[in-house]
Amino acid sequence: MKPRLQLKPKNKVTVRTSMRLITVGAAFAVLVATGFFLYYNLGRSTDSIAGRETQLPGFGYRKPIEFNGSINRGNELLLNFPLLLSFKDKDLKHISSGGKVAHKRGFDIRITKKDGISLLPSSIESYNPTTGECNIWVLADSLISGKAPEMMLYYSNAALQSEPANLVWTDKFVSTWHLNKDFTGNGVKKLRATQVGTTDAEGKISGGKRFNNDNGDFAEYPFYEDLNLRNEYTISAWIFLEQVGRPQVIIGNHGDVPGGYSLYVDRQGNLNASFVTSSGKTINLDNIGGAEKLDVDKWQHVAVVYSLSAGKLQTFVNGISDRILLTKDAPAPTSSPMLIGKEKFTENSGFTGIIDEVKISSKMRSATWLSTEYFNQYNPFALYSLRNEEALQVDAVSLERNRQAMQQNANEQASSAQRMNNLKATKKEDEIAPNTISSSAQQMRDKMNNMRRVSKENTK
Description:
Layout: H1 11-43, H2 49-52, E1 61-67, E2 78-88, E3 110-113, E4 122-128, E5 133-143, E6 150-155, E7 173-177, E8 195-196, E9 199-202, E10 207-211, E11 219-221, E12 232-241, E13 248-252, E14 261-265, E15 271-276, E16 282-284, E17 299-307, E18 312-317, E19 320-326, E20 338-340, E21 353-361, H3 367-378, E22 384-386, E23 390-391, H4 396-432, H5 439-459
Antiparallel strand pairs: 1-6, 1-22, 1-23, 2-5, 3-6, 4-5, 7-21, 8-11, 9-10, 10-21, 11-20, 12-17, 12-21, 13-14, 13-20, 14-15, 15-16, 17-18, 18-19
């Protein structure tokens, strides 16, 4: 008789497997709980690695820029738009004046997108270290209709000793003249004037230049091929007109040969624009009615756009279309120089008043672009504000550089104070000097006094 097969009980295997599953499950639960704890307590902290990735390194402070609403004045998406930001804030003063900006020319001021790390190209037009007032041009990659921009302002970084590369005026801008300090144009090539009249004046944005036709004031620039605009262009400026009754050129390159273009105020006080074809034919808006008279003694934004493909020459005043001419003609190239404030070979064509922010681009800007440009620059202080300051974590190297900058500033102040004290002491000694004059000098003085007395008696 065959022996029966004896089967081992399964309960031991089942118990052992269950214990393993319980152990693994408990470990997983602990791991999840630990991960949640670390994320909740450390992952959201500004001390974490993720926190540091949301700020630019080396800066001591930043402030969110809060826009009151959309800057875009139309329904068109604007790309690569030079946006003017104007601020006056006590924290933007230089450290020597009680502020927190490390560089005396404001070179450690930077602008980013809302994320705090995406730098936007910027260019400082003016910075006052004692008041914290600054005008900064920022290249906004997009301005969406109906949506306010979102940006962040950084400052206090002593490691930055130079202005960032000027990448603001690169999208078809041939040149931009801020006319703040001099007549140098900003663009792919820095155009410098060879002949300058004018005097400094308060401009629409920081400084400007005052022209006087009676004094023959103008600025002339040597021939530059890129200024030969043919297929399309846009010219804009801020003007403060002080007289009317004769043609006054704002900017142009008409010469003694066919070709060139001009933006000017005509005899009737209207904004006008012209160009000359290769056959010598002058195209302008003389016969186009409906123009608004330009105001005297008031800042106005003026512009002209031309497009060969669209077949039009159109002017704008304060962002609003003024006059339009439909034409199939095109400006011819010229070898003449460019002038601001006068036409080269036309007498009595000089501008009388102040000119500021002249811009030339080899692109036809849209009506939305020009109305947005006017809106942004008319009263920029009213369009946005700086929110509460955020103190940032600064690495040890940057912290030491900032400390050294403050120490250097303190040393410069002490040295300046010492020079002033020495100057006062020298002046005081000069005031006392007549009482300690040498005998020979005293004899010379007596002799001169005697000669004056004799001369006076002879006159009698």
